[in-house]
Amino acid sequence: MLYVGLVLGMAAENIAAHAAGLNALRVYIATLVLIVPALVGARLLYVLAEWSVYRENLPRIWDRRDGGGIMLGGLPVSLLLSVPLLHLLHLSIPVFWDVAVFTILVGMFFGRIGCLLNGCCAGRCTTTWLGLYLPDCSGVWKKRIPTQLLEALLALVLLVCAIAVRQSLPFPGALFLSVVLGYAGGRLVLEFARARQSKVGGFGVASVISLTLALVSISALTLYWRS
């Protein structure tokens, strides 16, 4: 499902690149290159959060049969590496990321459907109307908060909003920053509904990164709007 999401996401990004008047081939090349460190960053952050498990079996870190990744770990890595790459390809950094959000959101939507099918990222048990009978990654079926579906819905809402406002925002990069802010805020709320959180030093990894991304996005949006 992650593969399907990335393929369809890059197709959506290609449409957005053409609409924005960008060199679609260069955008495609940049995205294809940046997907690799994004996946590696997501995997490494998960390994760090679950180090007590992996330190006893280091080859398991890159075992493709062993799932696990924190998507938020991929974005900072890709952002940093995009600076020299986009300079080399003569692409504007903020304009590129304004179209790259379509790959991210479509990939996230299908990725979370994959999480639902696999049972990972399962929600807390609940007796409320919101609960659905779902498995966790161990195959235990209980009435749970459908966190995977809720996050997929969040990605879909952000995608629809991005399509609606992409031509009316005041400066390049505003769409990317707004999407990051929207996702980070939603993820902060959804993290409390998860049955289990990956932690480092007692802090929820996803919560800390989401809060940091939200603050950075707010600061950047405020700075750009003032200038």
Short description:
This protein is mostly helical. It has a two-stranded antiparallel ribbon with strand order 1-2. 65% of the residues lie in helices and 5% in strands.
Describe the structure.
- The protein is mainly alpha-helical.
- It has one domain.
- 65% of the residues lie in helices and 5% in strands.
- The chain has helices at residues 2-19, 24-49, 51-54, 74-88, 93-118, 147-165, 174-191, 205-226, and strands at residues 132-135, 141-144, 199-200, 203-204.
- The chain has a two-stranded antiparallel sheet. Strands 3-4 form a two-stranded antiparallel sheet.
- Strand 3 and strand 4 (203-204) form a beta hairpin.
- Helix 1 (2-19) runs antiparallel to helix 5 (93-118), helix 5 packs parallel to helix 7 (174-191) and helix 7 (174-191) runs antiparallel to helix 8 (205-226).
- It starts with a helix and ends with a helix.
- The model has no long low-confidence stretch (mean pLDDT 90).
